[in-house]
Amino acid sequence: MKIPLSRTSARLIHSLKGFVFDKANFQKMVDLRQKHELEDSMGFRGQWDSHRKFQIDFLRNNGLTPSSTFLELGCGPLTAGIPVMDYLEPNKYVGVDIRASVLNLAWREVGKAGLSSKNPRLICSSSFGSDILSRDHTFDIIYSFSVLYHLNDEVLDDFFSEVSRRLAAGGKCFANVNDHLESDKWLEFPFVKRGIETYRAAAAKHGLNTTKLGTIHSLGFGGPGTEKLNPLLIFSRRT
Is there a contact between 163 and 236 (Cβ–Cβ < 8 Å)? Predict the structure, then answer.
């Protein structure tokens, strides 16, 4: 059967466009632009790979197993979320973020990584998912990376209230904090300097113990930014 001339021309034009696209390295340009978009939404331009590697390595070295139920509060564009859900069994990952636009990027990353079959749940919420998740839904690990220093005191109290309610028996919450850079602002969020004792007292109000593990640099983070000095804390329910 002869292919109609119009279809033949369309195929040739499509092939020519593909040839020009490849020769001009347009795909690399698109990939780089998308990567910068992800980096800007997490706040660290040029550090996507170092942040991702540190976070998945840290979690796997600190209790994450394929069967763990995992809640990420402030999941952003899934810097940690993609390798975490890839490692977990299906239906184990829940991510919460306040920014709908960033969750749109997150869903795109799920598709690109081929992880739809893991059935992750991504929630847009201004209350750490309390308005969406059932009251008895608990998690083995709750994780918030580069989040707590973007919360004012009132919202931080809400965070610990939700963590206390969501931690399963023996569960742990991991979060890094800023205790060395002066308070400022990042995008529409505050950037807050607090001492460890302030977090300890805020967590204790909700029945949580606080343990300092060390700086993220001492725990294996290899990035060049000043965030390497951030302490990483564990919050766990008092027994």
Answer: no
